[in-house]
Each structure stands twice: as C-alpha cells, then as structure tokens.
Amino acid sequence: MLVILLFASLVSWALILQKSGLFSRIRRQSDQFLKIFRATRGVANPQGLVSAGSQFANVYAAGYRELQSQVTGTGNPTPAKLKSLQAVTVSMQLAATEEVRRTEKGMSWLATTAGVAPFIGLFGTVWGIIDAFSGLGTSGSASLRAVAPGIAEALVTTAAGLFAAIPALIAYNYFLQDIRDLAQRLDTFALEFTAQIEKTFT
C-alpha cells in the first residue's frame, strides 16, 4: 500500500510542478499577446502575433483562417463583404475548446489521487490492524505492548494516504480555477476579435 501511495504522490507532485509552470507561462504569454493584438489596428495577419506563443494566438489563427476563406485578397484581407460572422465565431470557439482541453491533461490524475488515496490508506490501516490482532493470538500475549507496534505501522498508511491526497486536492481546485479563467478569457477574446471583424468588414 505504501508503495502505491508513494507512486501516486510522486506523480501528483510532478504534475503539480508541471502545471504550475504551464499556467505561469500561459498568463505571461496571454498578456503579451493581448498587448500586441490591441496595439494592432485592424485585422492583422496572425504571423505577426504568433511570436507571443499563446493559446490566444491559436484561437486568433483559427478565426483568421475562416475569415480568409470568406473574403478575397492575399496577405492581410482586403475589405470585402463577410459571408458569415457566425462561422468565424464558431471556428474560434472550437479552437478555444481544444486549447482548454489540452490544459486539462493530467487533471483527472489529481482528482483520482485526491479521491482514492485516503481510502487506500484506510484499507492499509484496517489490514494492518487485522494483522496486529491476528499476531496477538499467536503470541499469546494480550497486552497493549504486543499490538502497539503493528497498529502504529498500520496508521502510517493512513497518514501516507492523506499526504498523497491533500496536495492533489488543493492543486486540483487551484488549477481548475485557472482553467476556468483561461476558458473565460478565450471566449471574451473571441467576442473581441469578431467585433473587430464586424467593424472592418460589415
């Protein structure tokens, strides 16, 4: 049991560190992208915005590709009648959903560890206590001194389960809020970009 809990804890901490770095990078790149985007007049070619390396750049590129398929011209799209603003919006929403899905990778492990680890620890404790009392009959001694070491070792499993579960639960809730914030910001950006398109092409 302890080996299982140790493995779960190590994987959880690896995910926590990886996700912490990921969301820190996302916040930095997103702020950089939005700064460049809002400083750009009109609808710019996404190649000039990709340098920010943000999820926003991928969503922008998806909307831009749909826009390009509807209007004439090469490079920056020339003013033309837009066929369907809704199609651009849907393309960006699909791209945003995919970006959010990518950031969710590993979250299921944290949720599973947070939910299952305490029960693994409890099961190990119960098993250890059963062993301790089984040994009591074998030894022929009914004193607390005879069973205390076995019970103490069994309780270590409960502590290990909590040690694995608590950080995973805290991290899961924290990262879940980050994912929700990212999804909200991407949706808001899609609306901002389509408003810019509507102003330019209609």
Describe this structure in words.
Helix 1 packs parallel to helix 5 and helix 2 runs antiparallel to helix 3. With 202 residues, this protein is mainly α. The protein starts with a helix and ends with a helix. It contains five helices and no strands. The model has no long low-confidence stretch (mean pLDDT 83). 28% of the residues are buried.
pLDDT < 50 runs, ≥5 residues: none
User: Helical residue percent?
Assistant: over 70%
Order of helices and strands: HHHHH
Biggest sheet overview: none
Number of helices: 5
Shape: rod-shaped
**Total beta strands:** 0
Spatial extent as radius of gyration? 27 Å
Oligomer: single chain
The secondary-structure class comes to: mainly alpha
Note the beta-strand portion: under 5%
Distance between the termini: 65 Å
